[in-house]
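Protein modeling request. Please complete all fields; requests missing the sequence field cannot be processed.
Requester role: graduate student
Desired output: 3D structure, token encoding
Chains: 1
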Amino acid sequence: MLLPEEAFLAVTKVVGFYSGCGAFMARKMADEGLVVPLLGYRASRAWDALEPFIRREREIRESSDRYASVFEDFVWRVRRHSSLEKAYGLRLRTLPPAPARDVPPPEPQTT
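Delivered output (111 residues):
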């Protein structure tokens, strides 16, 4: 990957995490109906940010290992459903807005 080492390590951690989640779903070791609603939105956002780097890494590797393919499959599972509530039968509840709190302003600082 043509990224600075620190960025490459960060990308590797994110790809590894979501690939692990995807592998558990693909092997039916984790329930898709639990993992997708819990982590799917973040996985999808991460894919959007990392896709150009992942595709470039695939080009650089010139192999059939399909780098990050399990992560890609996870995101495909997320995006195939327009409504997680309908797809997984979730009945999510919402909280009313918290009442406004009277918070005193901070004390001025002296130097």
